[in-house]
Design brief:
binds cobalt (II) ion; eight-stranded mixed β-sheet; alpha+beta; 2,3-Dihydroxybiphenyl 1,2-Dioxygenase, domain 1; 8 strands; globular; 3 helices
Length: 136
C-alpha cells in the first residue's frame, strides 16, 4: 500500500534558526524558503537531499496543530513521517477499514497534493502522514 518515504517532519520553534542549522552546521545546500500554509497551521521549508526531504515546520496562526507538541518539546523534535500513496481516498478508506483513526479529510499539503494524517496511538506512537504522489 505505502510507496516511497517522502519526508520526515520536524517541528521547530524558529524555522529560520532551523534552516541556519541545516545549512551552516550540517552543510545542506538545497533548502527552500519558508512559506506559510494556513490551512495546516504551519510554515514550512524543505531540506532537499538525494534520498528525500526533511520538512521543517513552525507554528503559523493561533491554533496550530504543532503548538502543543512544541510546548512538550520546546527545542523541537521529530513530529511525523510521510509516505506516498497512489490514491489518497483509497488509502484513507483502507486505513479506516483496518481500524486506524484517520485524523482529517484529505486536504492539500505542502507538496500541493492531498494528505491525511493517521493517529499515532494506532501507529506505534508515530504520527503518519500519507501523501498522494504528485504523478497521480
Ligand atoms: Co509533512
Amino acid at each position: 500500500m505505502i510507496g516511497p518515504l517522502n519526508h520526515v517532519g520536524i517541528a521547530v520553534p524558529d524555522i529560520n534558526k532551523a534552516i541556519a542549522f541545516y545549512r551552516d552546521v550540517l552543510g545542506a545546500t538545497d533548502i527552500t524558503e519558508p512559506k506559510p500554509l494556513p490551512p495546516q497551521g504551519v510554515s514550512y521549508a524543505f531540506v532537499n537531499l538525494p534520498s528525500g526531504q526533511v520538512e521543517l515546520i513552525e507554528p503559523y496562526g493561533d491554533s496550530s496543530p504543532i503548538t502543543r507538541f512544541l510546548e512538550k518539546n520546546p527545542k523541537g523534535g521529530q513530529h511525523h513521517i510521510c509516505f506516498e500513496v497512489e490514491d489518497i481516498h483509497a488509502a484513507s478508506m483502507a486505513m479506516a477499514e483496518r481500524g486506524m483513526r484517520v485524523l482529517n479529510e484529505p486536504r492539500i499539503g505542502a507538496h500541493g497534493t492531498p494528505v491525511v494524517f493517521l493517529h499515532p496511538g494506532d501507529a506505534g506512537g508515530v504520527l503518519i502522514e500519507l501523501m498522494e504522489s504528485a504523478a497521480h
